[in-house]
Amino acid sequence: METRAAVLVEAGREAPYAGSAPIEVATLELEPPGPGELLVKVGAAGLCHSDLSVINGSRVRPLPMALGHEAAGEVVAVGEGAEFEPGDHVVLAFVPACGSCERCVGGRPALCGPGAQANGAGTLLGGGMRFTAQDGSRPFHHLGVSAFSEYTVVSSRSAVKVDPELPYEIAALFGCAVLTGAGAAFYSADVKPGDSVAVFGLGGVGLAALIAAKAAGAARVVAVDVVEAKRELARKLGATDVVEGGAGAVEAVRELTGGGAEKVIDTTGVVPVLEQSYAATRPGGTTVTVGLPAPGVPVSLPALSLVAEERTLKGSYLGSSVPRRDVPRFIDLYRAGNLPVDALLSHRLTLDDINAGFDRLHEGEAVRQVVTFG
User: Fold this and answer.
1) Starting at the edge strand that comes first in sequence, how are the strands of the sheet with 23-30 ordered?
2) pLDDT of residue 173
3) Sheet with 261-266, side-by-side order of all strands
4) Distance between CA 167 and CA 57 in Å, rounded?
5) pTM greater than the 0.85 cutoff
């Protein structure tokens, strides 16, 4: 069958992307799902910095690549052995956890070895590729999802069944922004009632971390960003304090929290901000980082503090979440009014507007944008 999809043809082109057009919307041939795979009609797909890092070249992926990794849609066809049915509504997660490797069995599917290998190679979990361009080239898959497409084929291990009454544009956010941000607060940082929490970076992931910290009972939540509009949104979502990002952020957080926050979450993927986040954490506290800096960039920290101050620095991938457990759990919290995920949705756009959408993300003018499909 044919599908229109957004294909990254060259990484590293200069912004504005609306002019340099690194992404081309093309008609591709899409093969039917193989064993254990699903054909999904995409309802909505979110724009994320993980996409942007491939576009700007900071994370090298094989090209051309059909982009997009945060989405929701409807199952149209099911390959042999896949435990879904046509008509099921699904949220797609960007780690296709195999379910049988040591890390999956140990309860850490975000670190699935076969899933990571497939994602790095630009294939589906089983090693296959399902797109073909009109010139005969084979666009690679982005994180097993390739959601900026009217239709896509995914491993069933990338999908989580959800209530069909949940609008696609909201459901899509649970596949990355909410799993990553809320998971970082609930699981990686283990926010407890009464904790003081600071969140550096207030995009979709950072704001999801903020509302989850509030839901977990944090007494003080300090929101840090360079963009005033994002700080104001954070205040509306329950931040007790907002701080302008930059040179004075660390001292401001320390003053507001009486010497540093107990839990600090960095969502920026910017190493100097990670270093600030660590500096804004009190002795005995935990710093969690979920952003993806460019490979090979070192981080500089006072090593003595890890021991003498019993400090903890943790990485968090996919929020240390288990998608099949946590997508339904987080949706329940949303429906109960405890995770106002709909407030993260700042823009809706069409597939043809996708380069301009990534300009908006690059300039920090958006929280979460979604491409919607009719």
Assistant:
1) 131-132, 23-30, 2-8, 65-66, 140-141
2) 98
3) 241-244, 220-225, 196-200, 261-266, 281-289, 312-315
4) 33
5) yes
